[in-house]
Design goal:
- The protein has one domain: Peptide Methionine Sulfoxide Reductase, Chain A (2-Layer Sandwich).
- The protein is built from 7 helices and 8 strands.
- A 6-stranded mixed beta sheet has the order 7-6-1-3-2-8, covered by helices on one side. A two-stranded antiparallel sheet has the order 4-5.
- The longest helix is centred in the N-terminal third of the chain and has 25 residues.
């Protein structure tokens, strides 16, 4: 009986060791943030795009798929060249690419400032340098790929606002990088969170982000995600 008890304790201890990296991601908490002080109404008619990076694109895509006003959130790569815009290459960490998400949205329903608020609050932790939760490397960096001067100003002003307010316990390390080109990721990466909700990585690292979106942004949350196909 004593042997059985010792063996059971060893199995439990081993399981905790295996799950520790995953649990670390799950422990990442959302941060309640103020709305951007500068968030003017868009002067451009029709849908617009915003490209952001914040760790593994599965969770970032999953968050923005559930934001009202977003018609599509596409996982992909930004920051590098076309030739290396492949998962096997990007995963090596030396392509300059970041796992990114291209968000297509209607500014009449959700503003750019509101999207950035969700991005900084629940989609990822902007204080982690070249990593996110259990994932490490430049391909998991926190970055906003700005497409125009207005996106850059709003993002820069909001980062300055959050930094001045000491909204986070550590400095924001999010980079603002010019958007040269966005390259969609392989088909098996699209809608990954929706298609694999029981996958351990998703359960521990990404589903809590969806719960935080629903809790902190009830007016923006929607139950049915905007799927890519």
């Amino acid at each position: 009986m004593r042997f059985v008890g010792m063996r059971l304790a060893a199995i439990v201890a081993a399981a905790l060791i295996i799950l520790a990296p995953l649990a670390a991601g799950a422990a990442e908490r959302a941060v309640v943030l103020p709305a951007p002080a500068y968030d003017p109404q868009s002067a451009t008619a029709g849908e617009q795009q915003l490209v952001v990076a914040g760790g593994c694109f599965w969770g970032v895509q999953g968050v923005f798929q559930r934001v009202k006003g977003v018609s599509r959130a596409l996982s992909g790569y930004a920051g590098g060249e076309r030739e290396t815009a492949r998962y096997d290459k990007v995963s090596q960490g030396d392509t300059r690419h970041a796992e990114s998400v291209e968000i297509t949205y209607d500014p009449k329903i959700v503003s750019l400032g509101e999207l950035l608020r969700v991005y900084f609050s629940v989609a990822h932790d902007p204080t982690q340098l070249n990593r996110q939760g259990p994932d490490a490397g430049a391909q998991y960096r926190s970055a906003i790929f700005v497409a125009n001067a207005e996106q850059e100003k709003l993002a820069r002003d909001y980062i300055a606002q959050l930094s001045s307010a000491k909204a986070f316990s550590a400095p924001i390390v999010t980079t603002l990088e010019p958007l040269k080109k966005f390259y969609p990721a392989e088909a098996y990466h699209q809608d990954y969170l929706v298609r694999h909700p029981a996958q351990p990585y998703i359960v521990y690292n990404d589903l809590p982000k969806i719960d935080n979106l629903k809790r902190l942004f009830p007016s923006l949350y929607r139950e049915s995600p905007a799927l890519t196909n």
